[in-house]
Amino acid sequence: MTKTVNHNLAQGARHYRKTGHIASIATSTPSPFKDLTFPLNVYAHALLLEEGKATYLHYGLFQDNQTSLQTAQQFSTDLLMARLPPPPCRILEVGVGLGTTLSLLNQRGYDVHGITPDAQQITYIEKDLGSGASVSCHSLQDFKVQPESFDVVLLQESAQYIEPLVIFNKALDLLPLSGDLVIIDEFALKYDEAEIEGLHLLDDMAALAERFGFELVERMDLSTLAAPTLDYLLHITATHRQRLIKDLTLTDEQLTRLDESNRSYHKKYASGHYGYALLHFRKKTVPKWRLQILAKNQTPEMFGLFKKTFHHDMTPAMWQWKYGSNSAREIGIWRDNQLIAHYGGVSRKILFFGQPQTAVQIGDVMVDTRERGTLTRKGPFFLMAATFLERYIGYGKPYLIGFGFPNERAMKVAERLGLYAEVGHMTEFSWSTRTRFPLWGTRLNLIGREQADFAATAADQCWQHMAADLQTAIIGVRDWQYLLNRYLDHPNQQYQIMLVRNRFSKYARGILVLRYDPEGCEIVDLIAPLAEIPLLITHARRLAGMHGARRVFCRITANFAGYFSVAGGTQQTVNIHIPANAWSNGPSPETLKDHWWLMSGDKDFR
């Protein structure tokens, strides 16, 4: 029921945590759980009403015709404790709940310390067990002690809230060789549609453990025994509904949403998408390479690797522009405390065959030249790429699909390792410039932040028309906000953004994003109904002539080349391939092939 307290409430619990709503037990009805947050106090108080006490905040494992949640919860704890080595033994309990497991471990002679980031749980435990209880208010990530301080790291329904890379990195530091990592929790058993999301995938956890040098001692499927907990919770909230509303000063809507969340979880258990398992790992080796999420204070190391790899600098401003958002992801690999590889991803809102989704653009993939010789499934590139795909891309993950623009060598390696599949390639068009003689039916307006009032409306209008034409494609959102963030806020590059509209009616026909360099004038991006592309190209050629550029050129995914070829010019294939995730479970590469609309603006981060 920590899941009850936490993730089992899916929409409900997450909503209340985000909004900060706390429902405490009313002072007119004293309760030992009055200081716990919603929905933690709901289930604790409902258990108190139903069974006379509430000692655990986790799922129960029901056997035969058993009806008591207390008994089922105790069976779960006993199952967990049976995996522990005998005392004396140093145990770190991550996520202490109400402190019952911690107390039992102490009674059985273990040297145990508990951590939780929830200060209210600490207050409750110290009130119940006394101020001498060995607990501290820390997240696992922020908990710092000497290496190998514990013999066992125990996570009883807390792993689902912690990044797996953090779990295994901290366990690697905290445990000696042959130390035990024991997890009992809810997991996703499969993800096969975009709507189901939330829990760590069980198979991915096992694969990640192996990459960190842990061997799997035991994997026990407890789904059938755990599922009745959801029926029990629905039963007690229905039975004691009016008392819960009165004693906890709740609304009927709050309890209804709580029940809907439990019914949703019940369906996911029944369909085999969610399950419950015990995982027992043992630290077998210390890995040669160490996978970690890149922390902000480690960015100077990333800058150094970037300079060695690409032979030019990445500035802090450039990093902030690319990765400063909370929706971006970076994984690094360290060897002997030195960063030797990096794999980055930048979030991108897309229309996926007309439906809003989120993709991730892979970039800044780097491996130190001294480590590149290992291009197998044991090497650094595979370790970080496979981990990134498993953690972040596919059904049930933060990003439905990924894309990028790897060089040919990287693409071939990734295909050989089964990580990527090619779903498209780029082509380039080139045109001569034109004279500055105007096109009398239309006019141009240079737009920037200063013109935001009219530019935002025009840009969003152009984007809506373009999106309507590309309902059977995959395309990154190109609204006014995107123009601001991508082009006008770029820390280094200057772009010319031109609005093309009718001379008299001022109706927006399209938007051009241009960049001038020694090669000529590049159409980096355009936002318009597809029928307007020849008009925009003509205007680009005029502007290039006025600017003194020697040519106009444009790169577009080859599957959309026909919309550009009608404007004449010359076409040539560019050795730039578009990859898709072929490793984790998500939309198949076959369904994505030749459907991406991508231009230089999607690719170029210079």
Task: Sum this structure up briefly.
With 606 residues, this protein is an alpha/beta fold.
Structure description:
By secondary structure, the chain is α/β, with parallel strands linked by helices. It is built from 22 helices and 21 strands. A 7-stranded mixed sheet has the order 3-2-1-4-5-7-6, with helices on both faces. Strands 8, 9, 10, 11, 12, 15 and 21 form a 7-stranded mixed sheet that branches. It is elongated, with a radius of gyration of 28 Å. It starts with a helix and ends with a helix. Mean pLDDT is 90; it is low at 1-29.
Describe the protein's topology:
Layout: H1 2-5, H2 10-19, H3 40-51, H4 69-81, E1 90-94, H5 100-107, E2 111-116, H6 119-129, E3 135-137, E4 152-156, H7 164-174, E5 180-188, H8 202-211, E6 214-221, H9 223-226, H10 228-239, H11 241-247, H12 252-270, E7 274-283, E8 290-293, H13 299-310, H14 316-323, E9 329-335, E10 338-352, E11 355-367, H15 380-392, E12 401-404, H16 408-416, E13 420-431, E14 442-446, H17 452-469, E15 474-476, H18 480-488, E16 496-502, E17 508-517, E18 520-527, H19 533-547, E19 552-557, H20 562-565, E20 570-581, H21 589-592, E21 596-597, H22 600-603
Parallel strand pairs: 1-2, 1-4, 2-3, 4-5, 11-12, 15-21, 18-19
Antiparallel strand pairs: 5-7, 6-7, 8-9, 9-10, 10-11, 10-15, 13-19, 13-20, 14-16, 16-17, 17-18
Helix pairs in contact: 2-12, 10-12
